[in-house]
Amino acid sequence: MSFPPTFAEDVIDQPARVQFEVFLDEHRAALRASLDDLSEAEARRSLVPSATTLLGLVKHATFVEKVWFDEAVTCRSRTEIGIPATPDESFVLDEADTIASVQRAHREACEASRAVTAHLGLDDVVRGNRRGPLPLRWVHLHVLRELAQHCGHADILREQVLASRPKG
């Protein structure tokens, strides 16, 4: 997986908000793209002792979007939002989870994240997170860090999946 001819270079001289959003969107897209051209079985393949799979990583990233940009901003509960209570639960795949459905849910969560924060500045405080009030700047940095970690995980898992394909 690689980033597109980077948009990051296109925003070097832009305001910090624009830079944050571009970096977040690049990582969001890269994580979703880790599922491209895989079979459903490959996307669900467990290659590590944890519950981490490529499909589960993208499903978890949807949870992350909803925790940090719905729960934290709107102050709605996880039950109201319809997401698991814990991060570990967010990796669990249902029979109905497919590459297309998980990618779509993630894309929709990202669109909702952008919409709900569009009116906020980086120094505005969100109050719905369990840690207490946090500036949006910190939330963007935290989500960027988490997405970067998961993109790295996805790179390695995808490499393993592709290497295990029959040759020829």
Q: What strand line-up does the widest sheet have?
A: 1-2
Unreliable segments (pLDDT under 50, ≥5 consecutive)? 1-5
Largest sheet: 2 strands, antiparallel
Which strand-content bin applies to the residues?
A: under 5%
* Helical amount: 55-70%
C-alpha-based Rg, rounded = 16 Å
Q: How would you describe what is shown here?
A:
With 168 residues, the chain is an all-alpha fold. The protein is 57% helix and 2% strand. It is built from 6 helices and 2 strands, in the order αααααββα. A hairpin with a 7-residue loop joins strand 1 (125-126) and strand 2. The protein is globular and about 55 Å long.
Task: Please sum up the structure shown.
With 168 residues, the protein is mainly alpha-helical.
Question: How do the helices and strands line up, and which of them pair or pack?
Answer:
Blueprint: H1 16-33, H2 40-44, H3 54-74, H4 78-81, H5 99-117, E1 125-126, E2 134-135, H6 136-163
Antiparallel strand pairs: 1-2
Helix pairs in contact: 1-5, 1-6, 3-5, 3-6
Key features?
single chain; two-stranded antiparallel ribbon; 168 residues; mainly alpha; 57% helix
